[in-house]
Amino acid sequence: MMSEVRFHGRGGQGVVTTSKILANAFARTGQFGASFPMFGFERRGAPVTAFGRFSDKPVKEKTQIYNPNILVVLDPSQKNSPAVFDGLLPGGMLLINDKKNKGDIRHENLRKLAMVDANGIAMEEIGLPIPNTVVVGAFAKMSGLLDIDPVLEALADYFSGKKLDANRVCAQRGFEEVTTVDL
Fold it and tell me: Which GO molecular function annotation, any one, does this entry have (predicted)?
């Protein structure tokens, strides 16, 4: 089965890297993944969208995802943006980087909501509000599509030394600290 994931965030949050790490992690399990970004103005703080397709069969399509079944929002200020929910399929899931959410997110097709304080964890572990590696761990747990081990292994292709160790802690904490609510 193909999972189509749309990632929303802002430049500097690691949105594109998030989708790349997940595609790498899926490949490590013998599955297939494709990751690709969509940029507007490429600058820190500008909205960024990335896409990921993950499947047990080869992924050939590399186009924008118009009807995702999973949404990942790295920028909490975008949580109620109509653009985020555009095209969400019935039974959809949403993972959001948000420590303050009290269940105020609603959409007719949303069935699972997951929250993780990715910015807070990243600040504690790496000293920067870059939530991407926390989010990849939380995605693995929330989606049920991956275990944490291939995610931790995939990080070695993006980080080394102390940065690798710190980002592995971030991913592990995301996996352990994400909370999920069925709607």
Answer: 3-methyl-2-oxobutanoate dehydrogenase (ferredoxin) activity
